[in-house]
Design a protein that fits this description.
The complex is a heterodimer of chains A (342) and B (629). Chain A has 342 residues and is an alpha/beta fold. Chain A is built from 11 helices and 12 strands. In chain B, the strands form 4 sheets. In chain B, strands 9-8-10-11-13-12-19 form a 7-stranded mixed beta sheet, sandwiched between helices. In chain B, strands 2-3-1-4-5-6 form a 6-stranded mixed beta sheet, with helices on both faces. In chain B, strand 4 (94-99), helix 3 (102-108) and strand 5 (112-121) form a beta-alpha-beta unit. Chain B: Pfam families: POR, POR_N.
C-alpha cells in the first residue's frame, strides 16, 4: 500500500467555508498530520455537530458523520464504544460544543474515551449570522446584543479542566507549527484529547485574535508552553512567567537586565493540574500572554477499555449467544408444564 | 410468513375465566412502601405460576422512594390474579385484600367485592395510624366493615413472637411480617412454603441469619392458618393448575422480556447489541437487564441524558451494531431530534417507549398509552417511523425480535410502545426454543464490495440502503442530517431531489406494510355486529370481556393491533365487516383519530386515563351498551 499524501485525505467536495476563514488552515494541518502519521482513511471517523466548523467531515475522504447540534460527542462515543479500532475525531465549535452541547462535552471529557475533540473557538455564531456565543468577549455588539453583551465569556480550556479532561491543548488556526504537533499528540493520547483552536471568523468577528496572531507583535501576547521547558516568551524572548511569591497564581516578569533570570521562571509541567488551571486563565488580563501548546496531559484510565472489562474477549458466535441467552433465561425459576408435570 | 411474532400470538387458548373464587382468585397485598409488599406479591406470583396456574399481576407503587409511613400516598400494593382458567387482567375487584396498615385498607377497600375477605394486621391499627389514614373511627370496631368477611390478626406481634428465639431485635423481627403474611396466604391457597423457602435461602445466602428469620416467619404464618381457630366463613381457595401448553415456563415481566428479546433480535441479525439509556421510570429495568447481559456481549451505556443516550445508540448503529435506546414519554420527547437524524441517515435503531401518564412529567409510575401521536407523528419534517406494540408481557420478547428484524431489514429506526403496566406486570412465559423456525436467523449483510457502492442507493423491495460500516476499506462516505442526494448521499438542497427522498422515506413504510403479517382476529368471528379494536396493554381486559360476551352468544370480536404504523394493509377490509368498531384505549382517542385519517370506517372511541388498565366490567359495559345487555 502506498503512503497517503495530505491531499488524499481531502474529499472530492468543494470546500465551502468563506474565503479567508480560519477553518481552511485547520483542515490543512489535519490532512498533513494524518498523512504524516500514517493514518488510514477507512479507520478514521470524523463526527461533527452543527455550525461552520462542523462542515469539516464533508471535506475529509474518511468516514464522516455530520450530526445534529451539540450532539457529536455522544454519537462519537457510541461509534467508538462499538468499534474501539476506529480513530474518532469530533469537530465542534464554541456554540455547538459549549452552548447547546455543553452537557455532552462535559461528560465526554469526564469519561476519557479515546477520541479527539477539536473545538473551533471563533467567539461568535457564524452559520446563523453573527449572534454572540458563550465565548464572546463581554460587551460585544451583535444582532442579538445590540447594546453589547453583559455575559461573562466561558474559557473553554478552563471548562475542560473543570470537567476532568486529561488532555488539554490550545492553538491558533493559522499556526501550523503549533497546531500540527498538538493534533498529533491528541491523536496519540489514550483518552479524550481536547484541543481548542482560536479561529478567526472573517465575516462576523474578524480580527478578534489579531493581537495574538500578529507576526511581529504576537509573540508578546502568546506563550507556547512545552513540557520541561522554562516559560519564556516575547518578541525578544525577554519575558517569562513565574509563580507569584507568597501566594497562588502566576505573574509575568521581565528578563531584561536587572530583572529576573530563566532560573526564576516556572518550568512547564504538563501533569500539574493546578498549573494547568492557572495557564488556562492566563491572558484574560492585560499584559498576560495567552497560553498555547499542551496545557495539561495526564495518562488516566481510558473509558472504552475499562467499560469493556467483562465483555467476551472475542465476539461470540450466534449459536454461542443463543446458548448463553437460553441459560440466562433459565437462571430464573422455571417449571415444566406437560403430562409428567404436577 | 412465519416469524417470532406469530409464534407468540398462536398461544393456546385457555378456558374463559367466569366464576371468581372458583376459576380464579384475585388477591391484593397492600401496606407501607417499606413493608416489602412488592416482594411478597412477586413471591406469591412465582409460587402460583410454578404450581401451574395462569397469573396476571399489577404492581402499584408510589413515585416516592420512601413516602412517610402510614400515609395513603405511601401505600404500595401488588395485585395478583391466580387462575386455572385464562387470566389476562389483575381483576376488576379484589376477592381477598391483605392490608398491613389502616392507610392500605382505606386506599383499597373500595376495590374489594361484597363479602370479600379482609386480612388485617390489627397491630398496625393504632389510634394515630387510624387517624393518619383519615378514618374517623376504628373501622375494625365501628361496624363499617360488616359487608366484608374480616380476619383481624395480630400479624406484627405474631411475627415478633415467632422470632423471639432468634435474638433478632424487635425492629428487625417486625421486618419479617410480610413473610408471616405470605405464609398465611400460601396456606389459604393450599400451597406449601417450600418454593419460597428455597428462594429465601438463595436470596439471603450471604446473610444466613436473615434467611433463617424470614423462613421462620413464613412457616409461622403458614402454621397459624393450620392451627388457629379461624372463623367458619374463611374458606381456603382451591385453584387447580391451568391447562397451559406443554413446555418449560418461567414468569417474566414486560421490561425483562423486551430486553431479552432485543438481545435475541440483535443476535439473530448477527449483530452486537448496544443499549444507550438514561434512567427514567418505568423504563430503567430495561437498562438494568441489558447491563446484566455483558457476559453475552451486550454493551450497555448509561448516558448523561436522554439525547446522548439515543445519539450514542445511533453512533453504535453507524459503527455496525444494533443501537437501541429506551425511555418513557418525557425522555422520548428529548430524543425527538435524534430520531429525525436516524430517519434521515436511514440507520437501524430501536427506540422503546415504556409509556406512562402524561403530558410533561405526568404520572411517572402510572400506566397510559397516550404517546401514539408522538410515536407516529411527533417529529419535524415528513419523518415516517414504524411503530409496533406488544399486547402483554409474554409477547415482549418476540416483539423485541420483530423490532430488530424490521429495523435491520429495512434500514430504519423503529419505535416499540409498551407501557408501565406491561413493563411491570408478570405472566407465565413459555421459554423460547431457538431451533423453532419462528427464530430463524435474519443475518444482516453489511457492504464490503466497493463496486457500484452508493450509500443512498435503495433496494426496491425493502427500500433499505446499503449499510457500509466505518473500518471497511474503500467505502468511505459521509452521512448526516442534511438532505441527501439520492444515490450518492452527498448534501443536496435541490427541490426535486427532496421530493424524491421524501417519497423514498415514505416508501420504506409501504415496504414494511407489505412484509408484516395480515391483521387477524384475536377472538370471535371475522365479521359481525361489533369489533373491539385494541392495541398494547388494553389487550387483557378486552380479551376477557369479549370472550365472555361471546360465550353469552353476543356477536363481538376482538381485533388487536401489534403493527400500528404502518397499519396492516387488510385492516380496513377487516373492519368493514363489522357494524360497529369501538376502540377502547388508555388515552383520549389517539388510535381512533389515526384510523379516521387513514380509512373510511366510522370508528368510535372509548377513553380511560385513570393511571390503570381498563377494568373488564368497563369493557363489558361497552359491549352491553353497543349490543344490549
Amino acid at each position: 500500500m502506498t503512503d497517503l499524501k495530505p491531499k488524499d485525505f481531502a474529499s472530492s467536495l468543494d470546500v465551502r467555508w468563506c474565503p479567508g476563514c480560519g477553518d481552511y488552515a485547520v483542515l490543512k494541518s489535519l490532512h498533513k498530520m494524518l498523512a504524516d502519521t500514517g493514518a488510514k482513511l477507512e479507520d478514521t471517523l470524523c463526527v461533527s455537530g452543527i455550525g461552520c466548523s462542523s462542515r469539516l467531515p464533508y471535506y475529509m475522504a474518511t468516514y464522516g458523520f455530520h450530526t445534529i447540534h451539540g450532539r457529536a460527542p455522544a454519537i462519537a462515543s457510541g461509534a467508538k464504544l462499538a468499534n474501539p479500532e476506529l480513530d474518532v475525531w469530533v469537530f465542534t465549535g464554541d456554540g455547538d460544543g459549549l452552548s447547546i452541547g455543553g452537557n455532552h462535552l462535559l461528560h465526554a471529557l469526564r469519561r476519557n474515551l479515546d477520541m479527539q475533540i477539536v473545538l473551533f473557538n471563533n467567539q461568535i455564531y457564524g452559520l446563523t449570522k453573527g449572534q454572540y456565543s458563550p465565548t464572546s468577549q463581554k460587551g460585544v455588539r451583535t444582532p442579538s446584543s445590540p447594546g453589547g453583551t453583559v455575559e461573562m465569556p466561558l474559557n473553554p480550556a478552563r471548562f475542560a479542566i473543570g470537567a476532568g479532561s486529561k488532555f488539554i491543548a490550545r492553538s491558533i488556526d493559522t499556526q501550523a507549527k503549533v497546531l500540527g504537533p498538538i493534533l498529533e499528540a491528541a491523536r496519540a493520547f489514550d483518552g479524550t484529547a481536547f484541543v481548542e483552536v482560536l479561529q478567526n471568523c472573517v465575516i462576523f468577528n474578524d480580527g478578534v485574535f489579531d493581537h495574538l496572531k500578529d507576526k511581529k507583535q504576537g509573540p508578546d501576547h502568546t506563550i507556547v508552553v512545552e513540557h520541561g521547558q522554562p516559560m519564556v516568551f516575547g518578541v525578544n524572548k525577554d519575558k517569562g512567567i513565574r509563580a507569584k511569591a507568597g501566594g497562588f497564581g502566576l505573574e509575568v516578569v521581565s528578563l531584561e537586565e536587572g530583572g529576573c533570570t530563566e532560573a526564576d521562571l516556572l518550568v512547564h509541567d504538563e501533569t500539574n493540574h493546578a498549573l494547568a488551571v492557572a495557564l488556562a486563565e492566563l491572558g484574560e488580563k492585560g499584559g498576560e500572554p495567552t497560553v498555547l501548546g499542551i496545557l495539561f496531559r495526564e495518562p488516566a484510565t481510558e473509558f472504552g477499555a475499562a467499560s469493556r472489562v467483562g465483555l467476551p474477549e472475542k465476539p461470540l458466535s450466534m449459536n454461542e449467544k443463543l446458548t448463553r441467552l437460553s441459560a440466562t433465561l433459565r437462571a430464573a425459576e422455571t417449571w415444566d408444564v406437560g403430562e409428567d408435570a404436577a | 410468513m412465519q416469524n417470532g411474532l406469530e409464534h407468540s400470538t398462536a398461544m393456546q387458548e385457555l378456558p374463559v375465566s367466569q366464576q371468581p373464587e372458583v376459576d380464579y382468585v384475585r388477591v391484593r397485598f397492600a401496606g407501607d412502601s417499606g413493608d416489602g409488599i412488592q416482594m411478597t406479591g412477586t413471591r406469591l406470583a412465582e409460587s402460583a405460576a410454578r404450581f401451574g396456574n395462569d397469573i396476571a399481576t399489577f404492581p402499584d407503587f408510589p413515585a416516592d422512594i420512601r413516602a412517610p409511613s402510614g400515609t395513603i400516598y405511601g401505600v404500595s400494593a401488588y395485585s395478583l390474579n391466580i387462575g386455572h382458567t385464562e387470566v389476562d387482567t389483575f381483576g376488576d375487584e379484589t376477592d381477598a385484600l391483605v392490608a398491613l396498615n389502616p392507610a392500605a385498607l382505606r386506599k383499597y377497600l373500595e376495590g374489594v367485592k361484597q363479602n370479600g375477605l379482609l386480612i388485617i394486621d390489627m397491630d398496625a391499627f393504632t389510634e394515630r395510624a387510624i387517624a393518619k389514614a383519615g378514618f374517623s373511627g376504628n373501622p375494625l370496631e365501628d361496624g363499617s366493615l360488616t359487608s366484608f368477611r374480616v380476619l383481624p390478626l395480630e400479624i406484627t406481634s405474631n411475627t415478633e413472637k415467632a422470632l423471639k428465639e432468634t435474638g433478632l431485635s424487635a425492629k428487625d423481627a417486625r421486618r419479617c411480617k410480610n413473610m408471616w403474611t405470605l405464609g398465611l396466604v400460601l396456606w389459604l391457597f393450599e400451597r406449601s412454603t417450600a418454593d419460597v423457602e428455597h428462594w429465601i435461602e438463595q436470596k439471603f445466602h450471604k446473610k444466613p441469619e436473615v434467611a433463617k428469620a424470614n423462613i421462620m416467619a413464613l412457616q409461622a404464618g403458614h402454621l397459624y392458618g393450620e392451627v388457629a381457630d379461624l372463623p367458619p366463613d374463611v374458606s381456603r381457595y382451591r385453584i387447580q393448575p391451568a391447562p397451559l401448553m406443554e413446555g418449560e415456563y418461567r414468569s417474566i415481566n414486560g421490561n425483562e422480556g423486551m430486553a431479552y428479546g432485543l438481545y435475541a433480535g440483535a443476535t439473530l441479525a448477527n449483530l452486537e447489541l448496544f443499549y444507550g439509556s438514561y434512567p427514567i421510570t418505568p423504563a430503567s429495568p430495561l437498562l438494568h437487564t441489558v447491563a446484566k447481559l455483558k457476559e453475552l456481549g451486550a454493551i450497555s451505556f448509561q448516558a448523561e441524558d436522554e439525547i446522548a443516550a439515543i445519539c450514542a445508540a445511533i453512533g453504535a448503529s453507524y459503527a455496525g451494531h444494533l443501537g437501541v435506546t429506551g425511555s418513557s414519554g418525557p425522555g422520548i420527547a428529548l430524543k425527538t431530534e435524534a430520531i429525525g437524524l436516524a430517519i434521515m441517515t436511514e440507520l437501524p435503531l430501536v427506540i422503546v417507549n415504556v409509556q406512562r401518564g402524561g403530558p410533561s412529567t405526568g404520572l411517572p409510575t402510572k400506566t397510559e398509552q397516550s404517546d401514539l401521536f408522538q410515536a407516529i407523528w411527533g417529529r419535524n419534517g415528513d419523518a415516517p417511523l414504524p411503530v409496533i406494540a406488544p399486547a402483554h408481557p409474554g409477547e415482549c420478547f418476540d416483539m423485541g425480535v420483530e423490532a430488530a428484524k424490521l429495523a435491520t431489514k429495512h434500514m430504519t429506526p423503529l419505535m416499540v410502545l409498551t407501557d408501565g403496566y406491561i413493563a411491570n406486570a408478570s405472566a407465565p412465559w413459555k421459554l423460547p426454543d431457538f431451533s423453532d423456525p419462528a427464530y430463524e436467523p435474519f443475518p444482516v449483510e453489511q457492504v464490503k464490495d466497493p463496486n457500484g457502492f452508493l450509500p443512498y442507493d435503495h433496494d426496491p423491495e425493502t427500500m433499505a440502503r446499503p449499510w457500509a460500516v466505518p473500518g471497511t476499506a474503500e467505502l468511505m462516505h459521509r452521512i448526516g442530517g442534511l438532505e441527501k442526494q439520492a444515490g450518492s448521499g452527498n448534501i443536496s438542497y435541490d427541490g426535486e431531489n427532496h421530493q424524491l427522498m421524501t417519497q423514498i422515506r415514505a416508501q420504506k413504510l409501504e415496504a414494511i406494510a407489505k412484509s408484516i403479517p395480515p391483521q387477524h382476529v384475536e377472538s370471535g368471528k371475522t365479521t359481525g355486529k361489533l369489533a373491539l379494536l385494541g392495541w398494547g396493554s388494553s389487550w387483557g381486559p378486552i380479551r376477557v370481556a369479549a370472550r365472555r360476551a361471546e360465550l353469552e352468544g353476543k356477536s363481538v370480536s376482538h381485533i388487536h393491533l401489534r403493527h400500528l404504523w404502518p397499519l396492516p394493509p387488510n385492516l380496513e377490509e377487516l373492519l368493514s365487516g363489522f357494524d360497529r368498531v369501538i376502540i377502547p384505549e388508555m388515552n383520549n382517542g389517539q388510535l381512533a383519530t389515526v384510523l379516521r385519517s387513514q380509512m373510511d370506517i366510522p370508528v368510535e372511541s372509548v377513553s380511560c386515563v385513570k393511571g390503570r388498565p381498563f377494568l373488564v366490567r368497563e369493557i363489558a359495559k361497552i359491549i352491553d351498551d353497543a349490543l344490549g345487555a
